[in-house]
Design goal:
two-stranded antiparallel sheet
Length: 278
């Protein structure tokens, strides 16, 4: 689950060097779109995924056009503060009764949960779907980035925004596509989160968003496989802490782990240090 969100963080940072703190709230919007698709319109599961991914992607593009694009050449601190502001706006705007409302909602599961126990370890079909979705997303992203024309544009803009524009790359279009792609994965993650933990509200994206960002930094922010690796380490650490210590330490251990890794390797596990020319 963290990996699907962390992929969006790491892609956006890799292209525009922006920590999009509103990404966790885009994940929340995807979950609510899925909720209404199942509860109100009784859509089949593929349509639910498509609606959540498409709605989240559209929202991310609007956020980029309205809030981030005017600050493309501004100091990074301005864009960072704007990202925090957009995050807070989405949380409190969607909490209005005229939008989603402030209450918790029970997410209807579109299929029956089936458990399987192997060697004392219990697996569910939901966990299998989440793992499969993450692996498929990782493979698709690797293909897009390294085997397509738009992926070549993404790598060019990541390397040098100005020079890519001089070479004919529409940098703004590439950035918007990156926002949309990362948000679509967050939308899929929102659907899976609602199915796995069937209770949603407008502030549900805060902690998963922070932990997914931490996972992206842990694995090496800007590195797609690193985001998945960091997310797997994060999730495993939380689960083991809850099982063998206490659930009280579950949230704290993630950030302790991040500090330890950054002290050892500041660029993250798979990240590479960049050389700044003066």
């Amino acid at each position: 689950m963290y990996a699907l969100i962390a992929l969006g963080y790491t892609m956006v940072y890799g292209i525009v060097r922006l920590i999009n703190f509103a990404h966790g709230d885009v994940f929340m919007v995807g979950a609510f779109l899925a909720f209404y698709a199942v509860e109100k319109f009784h859509l089949p599961l593929p349509a639910v995924f498509a609606l959540a991914a498409g709605g989240a992607a559209f929202l991310a593009v609007v956020i980029d056009q309205v809030a981030y694009r005017p600050l493309r050449n501004a100091p990074k601190i301005a864009a960072l503060i704007t990202a925090i502001g957009v995050s807070l706006f989405l949380e409190y705007f969607t909490a209005l009764h005229q939008v989603f409302g402030p209450n918790y909602y029970a997410f209807p599961r579109p299929f029956r949960v089936v458990s399987l126990e192997i060697g004392g370890i219990t697996f569910t079909n939901i966990q299998g779907i989440i793992l499969l979705a993450t692996l498929v997303s990782l493979g698709a992203l690797q293909y897009v980035v390294f085997r397509t024309k738009v992926g070549r544009g993404m790598r060019a803009v990541s390397h040098d925004y100005v020079t890519a524009g001089l070479m004919g790359v529409n940098a703004n279009a590439v950035i918007s596509f990156t926002f949309a792609l990362g948000a679509a994965l967050a939308g899929v993650g929102g659907v899976l989160y609602g199915i796995a933990y069937p209770q949603i509200n407008t502030f549900m994206g805060v902690m998963p968003g922070l932990k997914a960002f931490t996972a992206a930094v842990l694995g090496g922010i800007g590195n797609i496989p690193g985001a998945v690796l960091g997310a797997l380490i994060m999730g495993q650490s939380e689960t083991m802490t809850t099982a063998y210590l206490s659930s009280t330490y579950r949230d704290g251990i993630a950030f302790v782990l991040l500090i330890a890794v950054l002290l050892w390797k500041p660029a993250g596990i798979l990240g590479k240090s960049r050389t700044e020319k003066v």
